[in-house]
Amino acid sequence: MFNNNQIFAAPLAGISDRPFRRMVREFSPDAPLVTEMISCHSLVGGHKNCLRNFDDYKDEGNIGAQIFGADADLMADAARILENQGAKWIDINMGCPVPKVATRAGAGAHLMRDHRLAEKIMSAVVGAVSVPVSVKTRLGWDEEHKDWQNLLNIAADCGVRFATLHGRTRAQLYLGNAVWPDVHNVKIPVIANGDIKSSDVLPKLSELGYSGAMIGRGLLGKPWGIAEILGENIQVNVADVVLKHLEYAIEYYGEKTAVPMFRKHAAWYSAGMSNSSGFRIKVNQIDNADALKVAIRDFWGIMKAN
User: How many domains are there within the chain?
Assistant: First the structure.
């Protein structure tokens, strides 16, 4: 069975921001977390409209910063910046399937099609920082090109310390069931990713040679998910968690940005509860923090704090 430093929180685009990571960290103080992916162009260029470019990770514990891009020199520069900002390791995105990354930008999952470029980027990043470097990738571009093992062994030769393998091809996007191949013959430790939502699959992953598991969508509306998978006895007051998460979001983004951004989180927290659809409809019409807090308190039936 894996321990608490072998269950990772995945880099979820538009989700794994600092407020979300703070919530996960409150339930899992030692778990390795990964930031949402950061563009090397935006980071190196210091684009001020992207707050995550300026995150200080020194108080975030065991956290890796994920970068994406197709320019080896810029990726190396970005890695240096993130190391200086306190990232404990650097993760290279080689699996994002969305067109603006994987096709138009020639980054993310595109690197599964261009192993020469992938090797150049990995070598540059490893050589640029003193912290460990990891990669996150998929089984391959499509069913005819499942060459993940070759790519991970190239990563090992470049000095990459470990890899995360999402059990789908780029062509699958997030459809169908994830498949976890045997990884005993890979030269570096491999973390399994994709459809991992409970502890039931952990023994199987261990038998297949995985060194840990990464939880992604299983954390949506459930930042205590890692602790739960590890079998920890936790007591959760969901309403308090939702309100605290909202406060963290307002503190980070400001009310004008945080309130509409938080609607998706409110929906995930309420999923499966009675009248959750009505709650979602109501929340989607709210544009100020006080009204959102009232809606949250009403839905979960709690009294307004003094």
Answer: 2
